[in-house]
Amino acid sequence: MSVQTQGTDTAGEPAVRKARIPRPPRGADRDSGTPSRRGAAAPYLLLLPALLATLVLLGWPLVKNGMLSFQNLNPRQLIQHLTEWNGIENYRQVLSESEFWHVVERTVFFTAANVVLIMVLGTLIGLLLARLGKRMRLLLMVGLVLAWAMPYVAATTVYQWLFAQRFGVVNWVLDKLGWHSMADYNWLGSQFSTFSVVILLIVWQSIPFVAINLYAATTTIPRELYEAASLDGAGTWQSFTSVTLPFLRPFLYATTFLEVIWVFKAFTQIFAINQGGPDRLTETLPIYAYVEGVGNQHFGVGAAISFLTILVLLAITSYYLRMVLKQEEDEL
User: Cα 318–324–113 angle (5° rounding)?
Assistant: First the structure.
């Protein structure tokens, strides 16, 4: 390829000279080893280890669980190394039991109560962190991190001690405050009180994640927007709804989505508190799958329940995501 440049000859008349620009070698653009191609493939190569780990650690157990859900797997089959396929009999048995649907309803309400409390209290504490001074903010964040970092079993043991019937701190404090009927109250003796203790435990453990991340999100909001809102006469509530909330809305959507998943599959706290008691009235779907599968040694039925648990969770999360996307479309 060549371009023409204009110059002047010795006689003063303009002359046209040709300057050649070297061509790239043929096939260089199509060469798979060029930097452009390597740069395009780099993201996929970086994702490859994570995808392989996901397939090995999550994909294969899911496939194995699905295979077990179509088998009649009891202690006899395990001892004799037998594989008895029974089709959808396990699913038919589970779906025909009213107890399964009671557990599903209980799990949904339990998840909703926890997520609402976590998001409301976590948001308030996150906004409080944004308004505190450095020393008080550091002190509060240290307390939040300690609560967040405590292992589930250790935290559950502490709550069992706090709400113990005879020597629990909570009963002792309530008795000293004048509620003498609570001096020997059994917090794990009824469905409502047991769920109250479990919800308090899960909310206490989950608030730090929401609060700290929300505080981090508030640091990205430009101060100039608050100044402009104050010049327009906006008060505290108007500044929050017009400036803070629009910036935090994507974070709130994502965090709510994560909390729904984490609370729905909560197992350790519920099982360690009272093993789904009293009378299996506080069993959620993960506890129900474990009791039916491992506890009663009906492993095929337990696998079917766990697979149905995944489907219920997918239905809830898909409904939530659809609602969020519809709200975003309406805002646009």
Answer: 75
